[in-house]
Amino acid sequence: MPKWISIDEAVHKYEVKEEDVCLWAETEAITASFTETTLIIDEESLQKFLCWHEALPTKKYIQTLEQLCMNQAEICKLSLEVIELQKRDLQHQQRTIALLEKRQAMATEQNRLNQQVITMVSDTLSKNEDGWMERLWRRIRVTEPAQNILKSKHKKKR
């Protein structure tokens, strides 16, 4: 059964760097696990790893480190590409928003002008109707022959 120790214990007991222990755990050169928030190391796997690598780092270990570095570089490259694409998308969205705001301002202005035209036409129509009716009524009332005609038509109907 494995005996689990913390990274701090491994660093002090085996006089290794914390970064190295984390790297070994990440490359699965030693057995490691996470508790809720802490990385723990299988002490036996750490001892075997240290004995095995005591003389010199093996070619496989160096290749593993190189591969890890290349993978990290590729991840950084992809992250930069994603950031650039997000930046372009954001710029496109900002241009779209600016255009939509201009269209909204134009539509608001058009609506305001339409309301003015409606008001003006309505005022003009009401003035014209009143004026036309008043003029006609004045003509009818003022002319005496028209009054006589109206009276005679009234009498004929009776």
Automatic annotation (TrEMBL):
Organism: Bacteroides faecis
Name of the protein: Uncharacterized protein
Highest taxon in the source lineage: Bacteria
